[in-house]
């Protein structure tokens, strides 16, 4: 099996994962320099002056808005700067299948890098015009890019990965995302780039991985499945698979019904976004502050480190323990942590030690999320579907992910106001529901070929008399020298 991990495969996965790194960086980069950016928005809009110590002009309003971020106009533009990223991703996720099949996975990723470079330049050069317009435009374009790559990357990695390592390699998409978030948290500190002088550079670096990826993508092989089925390039595809057996398997599954697979795919993505993970990140700084942490921002970075470490653990376990098992463990653990979080928040004013219960629950919640519910939904969709419907299924699942993400972002402040610390009981109930659903409806895909997984969902199909074997899977990518 180790022979399947070739240099060509390593290069291809690393290059594809640069898009995921960019996605994670774009997710996290906007948070750290918020106060600094709000000041620049206020100045550009003419509603705030640092020299005056508040709003320029009316002294009454100056008392009302001592900080730029409190002015309604700044609040509106800042909220749009954050939300437009999800809107862009939601819209472009529909086009994943079209872009992936138009010119291939490699050329598709290469084409959309134009969006990443454009978005990075708009934000990096935002001081040349109106910062609020430039940043919002750049975030929108970057959202379009991330919506496309969040589907293209798992699809490409899933199609080129050997069966034995498909889970581990698929999890690298999420690993790159959390590393990107961690990098943005660290270099977003005020003594690095998150300050008045360097914040445009901080935002502009969102497009930096696209430069390296653009140089490396031409060296990467195209998905053999795409070459054969979409392009019909049989000679090229034959180099990377057992051609005859693969052709037979394609014929076996072309009449499959995909309704059950789609339901599972959508529920897996809903479980990721409705788990409460974003609420945890929202609460984390306040929880650490109540627990007496002198610098809560560093504790939040600590959460980012935990994110990364437990995603690495998932990479190591996913092809041994299995997708279904890790997802169930993750969701069940998060459910328990959500209950502990509620108890800790309600009682920490009566018992000082309860604040540490809340703080521990934050770390454990994030740990359980990254073991399964975080990384697995991204690549399991590619496993659930055969080649024909796979791009469309990934597009629908991605749109579901982005839409529920946007929904949570827009409604969470109101839910929080309504339920206060009991908000985590709501998430605990949702997590319990997802756990039950996955226990009864989601099969284990570990060690199975795409065709074998498709047959699991088709109860009426007769079992093939052919024993499963490596011949049904696309084999490892190899150059003529097995590099």
From TrEMBL:
Residues 1-26 form the signal peptide. It is a multi-pass membrane protein. The chain crosses the membrane at residues 75-98, 110-130, 136-157, 169-193, 199-220, 262-285, 297-318, 325-345, 351-371, 392-415, 421-440. Residues 12-446 form the Major facilitator superfamily (MFS) profile domain. It is found in: Cell membrane, Sarcolemma; Cell membrane. Residues 473-483 have a biased composition (Polar residues). One of its GO terms (molecular function) is fructose transmembrane transporter activity. GO terms for cellular component: brush border; sarcolemma. Residues 461-483 are annotated as: Disordered. Keywords: Cell membrane, Membrane, Signal, Sugar transport, Transmembrane, Transmembrane helix, Transport. Its main location: membrane. One of its GO terms (biological process) is D-glucose import. It catalyses: D-fructose(out) = D-fructose(in). InterPro entries: GLUT, MFS_dom, MFS_sugar_transport-like, MFS_trans_sf, Sugar/inositol_transpt, Sugar_transporter_CS. PANTHER family: SOLUTE CARRIER FAMILY 2, SOLUTE CARRIER FAMILY 2, FACILITATED GLUCOSE TRANSPORTER MEMBER 2. Belongs to the major facilitator superfamily. Sugar transporter (TC 2.A.1.1) family. Glucose transporter subfamily. This is Solute carrier family 2, facilitated glucose transporter member 5.
């Amino acid at each position: 099996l180790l022979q399947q991990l070739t240099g060509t495969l390593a290069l291809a996965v690393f290059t594809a994962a640069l898009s995921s790194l960019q996605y994670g960086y774009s997710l996290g980069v906007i948070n750290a320099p918020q106060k600094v950016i709000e000041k620049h928005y206020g100045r550009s809009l003419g509603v705030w002056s640092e020299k005056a110590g508040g709003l320029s002009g009316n002294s009454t309003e100056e008392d009302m808005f001592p900080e730029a971020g409190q002015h309604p106009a700044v609040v509106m533009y800042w909220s749009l700067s954050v939300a437009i990223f999800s809107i862009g991703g939601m819209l472009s996720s529909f086009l994943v299948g079209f872009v992936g099949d138009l010119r291939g996975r490699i050329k598709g990723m290469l084409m959309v890098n134009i969006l990443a470079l454009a978005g990075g330049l708009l934000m990096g050069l935002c001081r040349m015009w109106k910062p609020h317009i430039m940043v919002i435009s750049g975030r929108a374009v970057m959202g379009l890019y991330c919506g496309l790559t969040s589907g293209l990357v798992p699809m490409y990695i899933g199609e080129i990965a050997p069966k034995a390592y498909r889970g581990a390699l698929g999890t690298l998409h999420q690993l790159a995302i959390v590393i990107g978030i961690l990098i943005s948290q660290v270099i977003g500190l005020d003594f690095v780039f998150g300050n008045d002088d360097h914040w445009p550079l901080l935002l502009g670096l969102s497009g930096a991985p696209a430069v390296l990826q653009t140089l490396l993508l031409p060296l990467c092989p195209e998905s053999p499945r795409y070459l054969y089925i979409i392009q019909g390039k049989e000679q090229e595809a034959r180099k990377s698979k057992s051609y005859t057996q693969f052709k037979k398997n394609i014929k076996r599954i072309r009449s499959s019904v995909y309704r059950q697979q789609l339901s599972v795919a959508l529920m897996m993505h809903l479980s990721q976004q409705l788990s409460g993970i974003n609420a945890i990140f929202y609460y984390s700084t306040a929880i650490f502050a109540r627990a007496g942490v002198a610098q809560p921002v560093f504790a939040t970075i600590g959460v980012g480190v935990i994110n990364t470490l437990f995603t690495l653990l998932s990479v190591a376990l996913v092809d041994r323990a299995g997708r279904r098992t890790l997802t169930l463990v993750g969701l069940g653990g998060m459910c328990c942590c959500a209950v502990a979080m509620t108890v800790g928040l309600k009682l920490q004013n009566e018992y000082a030690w309860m604040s540490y219960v809340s703080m521990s629950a934050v770390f454990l919640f994030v740990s359980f999320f990254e073991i399964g519910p975080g990384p697995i939904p991204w690549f399991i969709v590619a496993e659930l579907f055969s080649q024909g419907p796979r791009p469309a299924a990934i597009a629908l699942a991605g749109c579901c992910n982005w839409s529920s993400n946007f929904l949570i972002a827009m409604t969470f402040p109101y839910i929080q106001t309504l339920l206060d610390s009991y908000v985590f009981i709501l998430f605990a109930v949702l997590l319990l529901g997802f756990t039950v659903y996955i226990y009864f409806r989601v099969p284990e895909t570990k060690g199975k070929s795409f065709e074998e997984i498709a047959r699991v969902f088709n109860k009426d199909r007769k079992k093939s008399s052919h024993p499963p074997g490596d011949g049904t899977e696309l084999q490892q990518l190899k150059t003529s020298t097995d590099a």
